[in-house]
Amino acid sequence: MVDSLVCNALVDKLPLGICVLDRDFNISYWNSFFADRMDMPSDVVLGRNILELFQDEASFLKKKLKSVLVLNNPSFSYWEHRPHIFKFKSSRPITGEETLMYQNMEIVPLQIVDGEVQSICLILQDVTALAGYFNAQKELALQLEAEHAEQRALINKLEMAQGQLLQAEKMASIGQLAAGVAHEINNPIGFINSNLQSLKDYVANLLKIVEFSEKVIDKATPDAYHKLKADFYERQQYRFIRQDITELVSECLEGTSRVAAIVKNLKSFSHVDNSEWQYADVRDGMENTLKIVNNQLKYKVTVHRDYDEPLPQLYCQPMQLNQVFMNLLVNAAQAIEHNGDIYISMKCHEQGVRVAIRDTGSGIEPRHLDKIFDPFFTTKPVGSGTGLGLSLSYSIVQKHQGQIAVTSERGKGTEFTITLPMLTEQQVAEKEQQARNAAPHLAE
Ligand SMILES: Nc1ncnc2c1ncn2[C@@H]1O[C@H](COP(=O)(O)OP(=O)(O)OP(=O)(O)O)[C@@H](O)[C@H]1O
Ligand SMILES: [Mg+2]
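Above: inputs. Below: predicted complex with magnesium ion.
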């Protein structure tokens, strides 16, 4: 059996704050834990109201104490929600470093007479070490999360760079192929076209000759021959041929001019046609291009401009950049069925320029997004799109050390963003050298 003196000593020495209160919250007992930290021995505080002693947290304490009186149930407060009810210090066991004490508090009904709580016991537990551990873990988790996010961003960047590299390689090999094909097609299409032009004139002349001969036959020969001639003409389908032959030649000419346009695209795609490198204002280029495509825009598109003033002059191939703007603007206009908007923004960006062209058109299907820069990829009907516009634009932007990206939402619209950097002096010198090397070849 442990006697009550030992019991008292034990409670006094517990590593817990223990304080007993009456129904008015006056202190009837408090152990050394409280006495030491408040520097107030037990006999000084006995009979004093706890709410007066701890005025800072009086209203919170009062609420908690009252709830025990009314509900006759224990009440808790955890450090995570209210870490420092009593502003006590706590020192770390190893380092001795002092911090404000993190506490768990429990208030329990102690004596209950006729169902009414007569006294309450408040128990305070120092959980600073535990809280420190949890907080350190939390900080570590946050750090890890931040590192993770950084890594994820890095991986995304790497994937993008890899994608751009793959695309660049694809472009380079297709560029060579295209240059060859363009060259091979260019010659035959040239003579087919000029022969067809001659053929068109010849056909017109021949028709005139036949017409004249017909009239002469009709006049100069007896009627019996007329019937013979009419039968022969009919058997040879003269009327039909006469009507169809001009159309056929015109269609052929239209076909060859379409092929010639494809060849022209292929040539600029493979950079056979190089426009000059120079310092230029890309905004002027955009405005000129807008004038050229105005016909395709004016009836259905409202163009909104947002340009930084001034924009830096870039060392570039202005004609080629215009070609990019044109491809993007025409695509945007084609994606708008009835009425819509095109938003063009040109902003200073890390010393260079960032151009964005956004439309409120049909948008691009997600499954097409990684194909649109591929040569010959088109969703347009046969004959109306070659599918070279974007691949050409991609390789032009790449040649300018820039980047082109797309975001699109089906039914909402599409945005193409081009970042064009300001070339370093060394890069400018390299481009000038390349142009000098290419000049004799172009002159050939
Ligand atoms: N702004 C846009 N809105 C919706 N789809 C687009 C847009 N821009 C491009 N596309 C899609 O990308 C495809 C490829 O575009 P690209 O300009 O390379 O070729 P094209 O427009 O089909 O043909 P071309 O430019 O040779 O006339 C288009 O067929 C279209 O499906
Ligand atoms: Mg296009």
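Residues 216 and 282 are 67 Å apart (CA to CA).
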